[in-house]
Write a structure and sequence with these properties.
This protein is of the alpha+beta class and 857 residues long. The protein contains 13 helices and 46 strands. The strands form 13 sheets. Strands 1, 7, 10, 13, 14, 15, 19, 22, 25 and 44 form a ten-stranded mixed beta sheet that branches. A six-stranded mixed beta sheet has the order 30-34-35-33-32-31, sandwiched between helices. α7 runs antiparallel to α9, α7 runs antiparallel to α12 and α11 runs antiparallel to α12. It is globular. In the C-terminal section; belongs to the protein kinase superfamily. Ser/Thr protein kinase family. This is Protein kinase domain-containing protein.
């Protein structure tokens, strides 16, 4: 597999049909490479001589696929990163059949992964452009051409562009945005890279209506990050030049601008993005966006020389006629204007697919051994295209197919077995090139060795720790303090405490209290402040005025004692600004207690459920994001900052404590588990840990706790912070279910806590929601690490802190104001576009013109 060409960071530009091992730089300084490293099969062709001068160089060659029903390009991606993918199809009479001018024009389907993306049907001969934005679900993204019997599939170019995570917040792992239209108003040139760093195509739309007036400026426009519309695109605009139709809600002297209409009677829903930047600031320009049924956004004022965007949730017009109108308000001194707009529809996929780790592993095997066969697209699905020799099963539940058998016989393979095979963790049978299963024994022996190591190493570690402890006891200096702690009782012989195997408690940095001292410091446990994992928590104050929280074991049981010991042992060996600090403990006869730093702000659960309702502390979104970011940093430290990872086991809002200035720290380590070796991948446990609503669904199936178990629980915490609702809501079910259903509409307001009153940056909110949905995916291996979660939350906080103005006027750079209603039908002017999108693109490159046909209602 070839690597992306250098020249533009992360760009992959494939000229399909280019000679093998060839590359060139086009007029836009974009480096194109051949497609031989990204696809198997197909034939190279050139368009006929009559078409050579009509198209740019990448579109004068193509690859056709006369054999095989499905042929796929496999593109390298970074898991969970956001991309723009564009394919261009120019038939150009390459086969001499002039099919594009006939009814029998080539027609076939285009797939992104397992989602049917579009039908390609180049009837006009000018070519077609298909573009989508998606989040990578694995290290490879397959895009496939599927023959439907309507002609030979072909493709001219494939372009992959990385997008910033903050862009187009509606794009998530299970839903992509497909471009329907993108236009630059009043422009006379086609714009792409280098003006647009993300290489979006901006087609020019010149004045096509006598009620439009062209506007332009040479001043630079400040652009935002959510949509990053290029300054050159925003430097032109159209404005209304005639009064609005009678009956408009605004004054009779106001004017209206009919932005765009199109007709589609299918069930498809659309999202519209309107981009604005005013060129003057001396007079008020204010307008409403509305359908016939009523207003959508009102009193909107574009920012002066700064980008602002209004966009809609997904909607479908009754009757299939779409109209968008901008109407000046009675106060406005200037007519409404529009600089650019984009229209997208949603492409979703929630069905079965190959487990991403298996996909990455089998792709690595394919590349290492140069396996061809039919190994393209998704390895397991659909069944008619499943890879030869690959057997899959839904053994782990959820929506993931696992590779359980691999037959490479008759593949002429030789040499050492690659370690890539061990990454197929569900593999049960492996047939080598000789057709037998002897190689399975090798894999099994490796697993046996791993099991042996995982048993022996912990035993050795325990022995070393015991020896080290006794050496430390012998060598430690005498305590010169006036305080002399009582001896720790032997839990094996104490009649008051059940017998349980424990390690000696490390007390070098933690004070050991007597029970009488704790009674004194807590005023006889008079101030109850909460309930912990194994007992009640009381407020206390030491002799030096240090405030403490004292957690007392409520009953003597092996389970309770085990939680007590787990917490004290973990707290004494972890030190981080976002983890609560242990002050000391009490262990005498029938009294067990922990004393740790007092967190005056309570816990996150109270913050969301009680304090916000009472107005006791601020409700701003930035505070919420900062709290979960700090909690994420604490959890990340447990997973990555310790010598051996610690699994918290009970991550929930109750265990995120808030101190001075609402600084967040993670507490309650009673259910924590520590790995005993660096090679350990999970901890098996019989008794379910955690709290209902937060427990990883995969734990119920496997009985295994992993770092991703904490990640799932933290994802639920994120959704609580977004919605202000508990994990399980009567009548709606689990929070992950109804949030997923709600965000599918593209309207973040459906899930955001109403108490925030829309006072948040939409991109920041989307970032947290998308991160939460990644954390709570059903399959553990598909979840991000806490390190990745921390990075995403830092991005979200930066977006929120940079968002100075939350009002609909969008006075800050890059604001995005969401339209909260649905557009309805209206009898407006229709605009039909001459030729195809691609033909307009090439025409605009050569002549600087693009004709726009106009038709009456």
């Amino acid at each position: 597999m070839a690597a992306p060409a250098v020249g533009q960071p992360g760009y992959l530009s494939i000229d399909c049909g280019l000679d093998a091992n060839s590359s060139y730089q086009d007029d836009n300084k974009i480096i194109y490479v051949g497609d031989d490293g990204y696809v198997d099969g197909g034939e190279n062709h050139k368009v006929s001589p009559a078409y050579l001068s009509k198209f740019q160089r990448p579109h004068t060659t193509l690859r056709s696929f006369p054999t095989g029903k499905r042929n796929c390009y496999t593109l390298p991606t970074t898991k969970f990163s956001k991309y723009l993918l564009r394919l261009v199809f120019v038939y150009g009479d390459y086969d001499g059949k002039k099919s594009s001018a006939a009814a029998a024009a080539p027609q076939f389907d285009l797939y992104l992964g397992l989602s049917r993306w579009a039908t390609v049907h180049d009837t006009g001969g000018g070519g077609e452009v298909h573009e989508a934005m998606f989040v990578a679900w694995a290290s490879w993204a397959p895009v496939c051409l599927v023959s439907t019997g309507g002609g030979t599939p072909f493709v001219s170019s494939v372009e992959l562009r990385p997008l910033a995570d903050s862009m187009y917040p509606g794009v998530m792992t299970n839903q992509s945005l497909v471009m329907y239209r993108r236009y630059n108003m009043a422009a006379n040139v086609f714009i792409r890279y280098p003006d647009d760093l993300y290489d979006r195509y901006w087609w020019p739309m010149q004045q096509g209506d006598p009620t439009w007036a062209n506007l332009s400026t040479t001043s630079a426009i400040r652009t935002g990050t959510t949509f990053a519309v290029p300054s050159s695109v925003l430097q032109t605009a159209v404005a209304a030049a005639a009064p609005a139709p009678a009956g408009n809600s605004s004054s009779s002297s106001a004017s209206a601008l009919s932005v765009k209409t199109w007709q589609d009677t299918s069930a498809r829903s659309y999202a519209v993005f309107l981009h604005f930047a005013d060129f003057q600031s001396s007079r008020l320009r204010q307008f409403d966006a509305y359908p016939d049924a009523g207003q959508v956004v009102y009193n909107f004022t574009p920012s002066y020389l700064a980008a602002s965007t209004v966009y809609s949730p997904l909607f479908r017009a009754a009757g299939g006629v779409y109209n968008i109108t901008l109407a000046a308000t009675a106060k406005s001194a200037l007519p409404p204007m529009l600089n650019a707009f984009e229209i997208y529809y949603l492409l979703t996929y929630d069905g079965m697919a190959t487990f991403s780790n298996d996909f990455d592993a089998i792709m690595a095997i394919k590349l290492e051994y140069g396996i061809k066969k039919n190994w393209m697209g998704d390895p397991c699905l659909p069944l008619e295209f499943a890879w030869s020799g690959v057997t899959c099963s839904n053994i782990s539940g959820g929506n993931n197919m696992r590779i359980i058998s691999l037959d490479l016989s008759n593949s002429n393979l030789s040499g050492v077995i690659s370690n890539k095979f061990t990454q197929l963790t569900a593999l049960e049978k492996f047939y080598g090139s000789d057709g037998n299963t002897c190689n399975k024994i090798i894999i099994s022996r490796n697993r046996t060795a791993i099991i042996a190591v995982s048993v022996v190493v912990p035993v050795l570690v325990v022995i070393v720790l015991v020896i080290a402890y006794f050496i430390w006891r012998v060598r430690r200096k005498p305590n010169n303090s006036s305080y002399v702690p009582p001896p720790v009782p032997d839990t094996k012989i104490s009649p008051e405490i059940p017998a349980v195997d424990v390690e000696p408690l490390p007390i070098s940095e933690s004070r050991q209290f007597t029970y009488e001292e704790l009674k004194k410091f807590t005023n006889n446990f008079s101030r109850f402040i909460g309930k912990g994992g194994f007992g009640s928590v009381y407020y206390g104050c030491l002799e030096n005025s240090t405030e403490i929280a004292v957690k007392v074991l409520s009953e003597f049981s092996a389970n309770g004692l085990g939680q007590f010991l787990a917490e004290v042992q973990n707290l004494t060996k972890v030190h981080h600004r976002n983890l609560v600090s242990l002050v000391g403990y009490c262990w005498e006869k029938d009294h067990l207690a922990l004393a740790y730093e007092y967190m005056a702000g309570g816990n996150l659960c109270d913050y969301l459920k009680v304090f916000l309702y009472e107005g006791r502390i601020g409700v701003n979104w930035a505070t919420r994001v900062r709290i979960v970011l700090e909690a994420a940093q604490g959890l990340e430290y447990l997973h990555k900052g310790c010598n051996l990872p610690i699994i918290h086991g009970d991550m929930k809002t109750n265990n995120v404590l808030l101190g001075e200035n609402l600084k967040a720290k993670i507490a309650d380590f009673g259910l924590s588990r520590t790995y005993v070796s660096e090679t350990q991948t999970h901890i098996s446990t019989i008794n379910a840990g955690g709290t209902i609503g937060y427990i990883d669904p995969e734990y119920y199936r496997t009985g295994r706790l992993t770092e991703s178990s904490d990640v799932y629980s933290f994802g639920v915490v994120l959704l609580e912070v977004v919605t202000g609702e508990p994990p399980i809501l009567p009548g709606r079910g689990h929070i992950t279910k109804w949030v997923k259903e709600s965000v599918a509409s593209g309207n973040i307001n459906l899930v955001a806590d109403a108490r925030l009153k829309d006072s948040y940056d939409i991109s920041s909110m989307w970032k947290v929601v998308d991160t939460a949905m990644q954390c709570t995916t059903q399959v553990a291996a598909q979840r991000p690490t806490m390190s990745t979660v921390v990075l995403h939350l830092k991005d979200s906080l930066a977006l929120e802190e940079a968002h100075d103005d939350r009002h609909v006027t969008a006075s800050s750079v890059g604001d995005a104001i969401e339209l909260v209603s649905t557009f309805g039908p209206s009898a407006r002017m229709w605009y039909f576009f001459d030729g195809s999108l691609l033909q307009g693109y090439n025409h605009s490159i050569h002549s600087g013109k693009m004709s726009v046909g106009v038709a009456g209602c």
